[in-house]
């Protein structure tokens, strides 16, 4: 979750998390220690965000002789454009390598400060840092908010389902845009295979998502576990009936909310 950007925090904290992971994997710093790849320690998207935006290429103006459109598209001018793209890509990759080396150096310096810390301590410190995010313990789903009284158009959000409330986050932001306790939810369910509806008091929110069933089942689980009566469901909504058996609550960050979570993690921490 940390490596994929689903734990919003500062770059300084991300570097400390990487250092704690190194301490857990390799114990105290040593030049002979086996180093994981940077992308196994630090979110790659943070490095990519430092790169300059691609510049818009302008078409050169020909003065004098007129060149045919076919020549411009597939001849000499096409070769010039291809060369420019290759040079720009090479510069970007060079910049990315520089940023990666700088980040790894900062992580190693923090790792050196952890000398003497045991693996259990490193793991506990790692989790303590991650728990500082208010959304810790929630299951996150990528959704597009299609309809809302407060928004004019579709908006990409995280739908966080936790033990006490449902929250909406802008991706990467620490605090939720809004949060709804379960007692405020009047109904929820699937309008169709890709649209999930959540009715909160006098508000109706429609989310486009590929995980309609997962969201409905998880909401049902938390409503049952908190003792909240299952909200009445309109005829066009399809949610699973509440089970009479005590539900098993999901643990940790975003359990089983995404296919990639079934991949084996690298090292002792969830990736």
UniProtKB/TrEMBL annotation:
InterPro entries: Actin_motor_Myosin, FERM/acyl-CoA-bd_prot_sf, FERM_2, FERM_central, FERM_domain, IRS_PTB, PH-like_dom_sf. PROSITE patterns: FERM_3. It holds the Pfam family FERM_M. Gene3D superfamilies: 1.20.80.10, Pleckstrin-homology domain (PH domain)/Phosphotyrosine-binding domain (PTB) (2.30.29.30). Residues 1-233 form the FERM domain. Residues 225-271 are annotated as: Disordered. Coiled coil: none annotated. This is MYO10 protein. It comes from Tricholaema leucomelas.
């Amino acid at each position: 979750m940390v490596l994929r950007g689903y734990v919003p925090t500062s770059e300084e904290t991300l570097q400390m998390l990487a250092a704690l992971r190194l301490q857990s994997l390799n114990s105290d710093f040593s030049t002979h220690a086996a180093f994981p790849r940077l992308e196994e320690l630090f979110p790659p998207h943070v490095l990519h965000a430092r790169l300059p935006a691609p510049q818009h290429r302008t078409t050169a103006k020909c003065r004098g002789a007129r060149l045919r459109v076919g020549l411009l598209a597939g001849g000499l001018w096409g070769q010039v454009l291809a060369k420019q793209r290759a040079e720009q890509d090479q510069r970007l990759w060079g910049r990315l390598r520089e940023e990666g080396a700088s980040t790894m150096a900062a992580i190693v310096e923090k790792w050196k400060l952890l000398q003497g810390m045991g693996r259990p301590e490193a793991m506990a410190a790692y989790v303590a840092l991650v728990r500082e995010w208010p959304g810790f313990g929630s299951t996150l789903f990528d959704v597009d908010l299609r309809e809302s009284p407060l928004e004019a158009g579709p908006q990409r959000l995280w739908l966080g389902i936790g033990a006490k409330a449902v929250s909406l986050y802008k991706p990467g932001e620490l605090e939720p845009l809004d949060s709804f306790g379960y007692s405020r939810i009047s109904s929820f369910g699937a309008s169709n295979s890709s649209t999930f509806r959540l009715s909160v008091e006098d508000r109706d929110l429609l989310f486009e998502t590929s995980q309609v069933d997962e969201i409905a089942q998880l909401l049902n689980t938390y409503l049952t576990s908190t003792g909240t009566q299952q909200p009445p469901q309109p005829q066009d909504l399809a949610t699973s009936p509440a089970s009479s058996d005590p539900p098993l609550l999901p643990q940790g960050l975003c359990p089983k909310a995404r296919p990639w979570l079934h991949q084996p993690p690298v090292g002792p921490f969830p990736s």
